[in-house]
Structure formats: structure tokens, C-alpha cells
Amino acid sequence: MNVIDVIRAKRDGGELTDPQIDWVIRAYTGGAVADEQMSALAMAILLNGMTRREIGRWTEAMIATGERMDFSALDRPTTDKHSTGGVGDKITLPLAPLVASCGAAVPQLSGRGLGHTGGTLDKLESIPGWRASLTNDQMLAVLREAGAVVCAAGDGLAPADRKLYALRDVTGTVESIPLIASSIMSKKIAEGTGALVLDVKVGSGAFMKDREQARRLAETMVALGTDHGVKTVALLTAMDTPLGLTAGNALEVREAVEVLAGGGPADVVELTLALAREMLAAAGIDGVDPAEKLADGSAMDVWNRMIRAQGGDPAAELPTAGERHVVVAPVTGTLTRLDALAVGVAAWRLGAGRTRKEDPVQAGAGVELHAKPGDPVLAGTPLLTLHTDTPERFETALDDLRGSYAISPDGSSGHGEDFAARSLILERVSA
Ligand code: URA
């Protein structure tokens, strides 16, 4: 097999054969295909796409480079959620314990943030003592004890994807539906969950800026999961404005705990419950109302057990940033726009996110929102609070936020928009 033939075949718009795909993934993982060759192939895939057969085989080849986890020894069905990433997306935090409190096992392998979208592990690491790295046996033990576990994926899971994703990140080849779908689904299928709900974000703060593209990504991932025996459904959800009222690690944990205590922002509660219902249905669990489990404290009990089982102290004070800067509303009216991407980038600049994988993050940094689109605001009252330990970052964060919001004196967005009717959940995609 010759890598140049494989690159040329895709460059010229052809279909790769199964043996070509198996070989190139194996050879790249083992180092026989060089980074520059794989980046040429990734670019050819980005430009010319892949058929469903090619995407399926590419996914299987990546799974085959590593281990597959097996939770069949558990006495409950497994169900998991994956979000394609957004600003203020702390949903995993209340969702995993909530679904576990309803009778499912939730094995959640999560990642760290890169760029403007936060990472679940960075958020949880703001809880004193909490550890993200577990062995497979420890993961199983936490699942048995608490019903839910959120931890880092070990090096043994789809190592081809680990290497390829790092390469795509620096070669402008992330934004390809076949490559994103196979990357996400190879890890989820290898993780061994029986059911999976995908939260595919659409809008300024998401990978997928438009709905048509997001739908294609969702359909591709649902087909991949279904073909591999994982009951998979997807929700397309809006990401034009941040979820909830916070973007930043400890700030988001605090908000997630509010949801578990029966409060929290309406949009976070709505999405948590919608995803919980989908996860339970996909796992074949019916007759349990997740809203009741939030209200009666059962989900909070699981959260406390889950955090303790990973060394954390759920009662400990969460870190706060040393410095704050308040942005006030310049006029009185209705907030008609608050851009997710700008808030995400500002939170990242304040220290909540990282530029390189090895960068540290500030637990207390981020942006707090005092109003959401549709809310009334008064001139001179707080609109946003910026938090950081490094106040020299305020200026660049404020630059990012310039022009990111609009306030209309008469409550109109200029597009005849009805904020009350605006939906967070846009579409459902199933097999
Ligand atoms: N997340 C992943 O795991 N892979 C991608 O390609 C994009 C987002």
C-alpha cells in the first residue's frame, strides 16, 4: 500500500477502499505515515467528503487502534451524552447525576477546553480535590458506587483519533463533517455505552454556524451510532447566546449546583431535562420523571457521591477570581442580542480557557451575565461581570465584547423577533 496513491485517490474525488482506510489509519497511528501526508489526506477529505461507507470504515479503523470498554457487568443500562461544544455549556454537570438518579448508569468520558468552548474536566477540576484521571477499574467502581462518572478518556481509547485530532487542529482541517463525526463517534463507540444522545449546537458560539450543516453532522453521527448497535439520537440546540448566566469553570459549577438544588436558569433546566428524557428513553427506562428527581434532591445526592468518589469535596468553597470588572448597560430597553462567541472568547482571554493543551486555566475566571436576550435592562445597571486573577486581561476581554450586545429602547430586534417564542431545542434527529 502506498500513501501517495491513497492521497491522490481522495484528492481526485474518488472513494477509498476498505483496505486503504484500514491501512492508512494503522500506518499513521504507528508512525509509518507522516504528519504531512496525513494532513494532505485530511484536507482532501475536507474538500471532497466521504461516503457513508467510507465514514463507517474510517470510524471502525480508528476504534481498532485502541481498546474497547465494556460495562456489560453493570446491572443497569448505560446511556451517555455528547455535546459538540458551546459557551456556558455546563449541562453534563447536572445531567449525569440526574440521569443516574433515574436508574441508568452514565459513563461520561469528557475533555478539556481548547479555544472559546469550555471543557467539562476543567470545570470539575475547580472543585477542591476532584481528580479527572481514573483507571478503567476505578471508573467502573465509581459507576457502581454513584451511578455516574465523569472522567478523562484514557490514552488507550481510539489513539488514532487523539493523534489525528491534534493534527487537524493545526492544519485547518477540523471543520469536516466526516472527520468530526468519525472522531466523536469512534470515542463514544469504543467507550461502550449502550445509548447516546448528541447535543449538536448551532449558532455563533458553535462549530456549526448554520442549521443545514448541523443537521448533516447530526444525521451522520446518528447513522454511525445506529450502524454500531448504539441507540443514538440527536438534538439540534441553539448556541447564539451563552447557556445560562455564566461562562467559566467555577462559575459554571456553581450554576450547575443551583440546578441540582432545584433552581438555576430556565434555559439550563430546560435543556438538562430534555436531554435527560432522551437519554432515559434511549436506555429503555420509562415511568421516571427527571423533574421530580431534581425537585426531591435525588440528583443532588448522586452528585455528592460522584464528586466524593473522585476525591472532591462537594461542600468545599469554590474558588473565586481576585479581580472583577462590571460592564453596565449604556441605555434602558430590552437586551435583544448577546453573542455567544464574543462571551466565550472573553472568558477564554480572562483565563478560563487555554491556547495550548499544556496551558493552565484559572478556576475563578470567566464572564457572568446579568441579563439574557429578551430581558429588560436599565441604563447604568450591571450587564456583565468579568472575573479574572490577572486584571491586565480586562482590556482585551472588553475589546472582544465590544459590539457583542444590542439593547433596543422599544424591545424590538429590528427583525420582528418574539423572544418568548424563541426555541432552545430546534430539531430532533433519529434513525
Ligand atoms: N470533538 C471531537 O472529539 N472531534 C472533533 O473532530 C471535533 C470535536
Q: How would you portray this structure in words?
A:
The protein is of the alpha/beta class. The protein has three domains: 3-49, Transferase, Pyrimidine Nucleoside Phosphorylase, Chain A, domain 3; 79-156 and 173-316, Pyrimidine Nucleoside Phosphorylase, Chain A, domain 2 (3-Layer(aba) Sandwich), CATH 3.40.1030.10; 323-408, Alpha-Beta Complex (Aldehyde Oxidoreductase, domain 3). It contains 16 helices and 13 strands. Strands 1-4-5-13 form a four-stranded mixed β-sheet, sandwiched between helices. The chain has a four-stranded antiparallel β-sheet with strand order 6-9-11-7. Strands 10-8-12 form a three-stranded antiparallel β-sheet. Helix 10 (211-227) links the parallel strand 4 and strand 5 (231-238). The longest helix is centred in the middle third of the chain and has 17 residues, at 211-227. The mean pLDDT is 95. Bound molecules: uracil. The site of uracil has 6 residues, from helix 9. The site of uracil (URA) has 6 residues, from helix 9.
Task: Walk me through the topology.
Layout: H1 3-11, H2 18-30, H3 35-48, H4 52-63, E1 79-83, H5 92-101, E2 106-110, H6 120-124, H7 136-146, E3 148-152, H8 159-169, H9 177-191, E4 195-202, H10 211-227, E5 231-238, E6 246-247, H11 249-260, H12 266-282, H13 290-295, H14 298-309, E7 323-328, E8 333-338, H15 340-352, E9 366-369, E10 376-377, E11 382-388, H16 394-401, E12 405-408, E13 425-429
Parallel strand pairs: 1-4, 2-3, 4-5
Antiparallel strand pairs: 5-13, 6-9, 7-11, 8-10, 8-12, 9-11
Helix pairs in contact: 1-3, 2-4, 2-8, 4-9, 5-12, 5-14, 7-14, 9-10, 15-16
Uracil (URA) is lined by residues 165, 174, 179-180, 183-184.
